[in-house]
Amino acid sequence: MRIANPIYDTIFKYLLDDEKVARLMLSALIGQEVLALQFRPTEHRIQNAPDEGTNLLVLHLDFAATVRLEDGAQKLVLIEIQKARTAVDVLRFRSYLGCHYSDVKNVYTGPDSQSQPLPILTIYFLGYGLDGIDAPVLKVNRHYMDVATGDRVRIVHPFVEALTHDCIVVQVNRLRNHRRTELERLLAVFDQDQACRADPHLLDILEGNFPERYQEVLRRLTRATADQELLDRMGAEDYYLETLKDYAREHADWRKTLKQRDKALEEKDKDLEKKDKALEKKDKDLEKKDKALEKKDKALEEKDKALEEKDKALAEMQRRIEELQRGRDA
Asked: Which domain holds residue 8?
């Protein structure tokens, strides 16, 4: 069976635009039945900085969902889906999540008729996953614990629910050959090993291996293959990504050139510093020699003065002797 490839943002959004399909997908992912779903028009695309290579786009989709808990009670949550090529740009994920925490619209009316912040559940679809973690689907669940006893506290409080959240990470590149659970068989529609060689916009799925109750997911993706507008958008995505990759490569080459230039300048600065130190040492040596010569000159000057004084004394003595001699002759 040939389906459209939901790794593309265009198809991913098309898939979840169908409420029934979205409820099926989200119920499977969170492990709780989604009874009602309201799509919130908060789709965002964020283009990463050019020097971040292939980590180019982050797609955000938000749903207000009513889910059935294990005890039969119902709970309203905000489900935030973020889809990206890689997990490298954590600050962008945090920034968008922070917007949800601070948005005064993300509230519901509690049993006491008071507004309460909506609990948040985040789901991340990553094209390239987390280093060292091989699980195709990673689920992070909070639990309350009494620190003194280590016992788990079973009561859930709105205060804690409003300030913390669970998350699910789907690692698309880890789906290969993983069909152990119904969820993994459902997520096979994201397995890029099944991409058509002739056209990566399409995947070849073995329908017989796909869970029966999720057939609507396949039907939705099959219908997408006949929608020329969607196919054109996938082509536009390819072009856009390739353009950004080319720009990123050019930017990387430019940065590499600048780095090489900076390194050459740094080496030149080091050579100049060495020369400056050598000249400084030479100047110090010359200064020492000048002081030594100055000292020697001073000593010679003093010696000359002593000799001059001696010559004067000798001349005076000679004069007196001559005067005495003249006195005797007279």
From this structure: 2-226
Question: In one letter, which amino acid is 102?
Answer: S
Asked if the structure places residue 292 within a domain, the reply is: no
Helices and strands, number each (H, E), in the chain? 7, 12
Question: In total, how many domains does the chain have?
Answer: 1
Token pair 């219908």: residue:
223
Phi, psi dihedrals of residue 169, rounded to the nearest 5°: -120, 120
- The per-residue pLDDT for range 50-82, each reduced to its tens digit, is 444 444 456 778 888 888 877 777 777 888 888
SS (H, E, C) 20-39: HHHHHHHHHHHCCEEEEEEE
Of residues 40 and 206, more confidently modeled: 206
> How many angstroms separate the Cα of 17 from the Cα of each of 30, 38, 185, 236, 239?
18, 10, 21, 20, 24
The answer, as to whether pTM is greater than 0.90, is no
Q: Residue 82: name the closest of 47, 43, 124 by CA.
A: 124
Is 45 part of any domain?
A: yes
In the chain, the amino acid numbered 215 is Q
**Residue 70 backbone class (left: φ over 0; alpha: ψ -120 to 50; beta: rest):** alpha
Cα 122 to chain centroid distance, Å, stands at 19
Grouping H, G, I as helix, E, B as strand and the rest as coil, residue 126 is strand
Matching residue, tokens 């507008």: 229
- Packed helices 215-224 and 9-17: angle between N→C axes, nearest 10 degrees: 130
CA atoms of 61 and 42, how far apart (whole Å) = 6
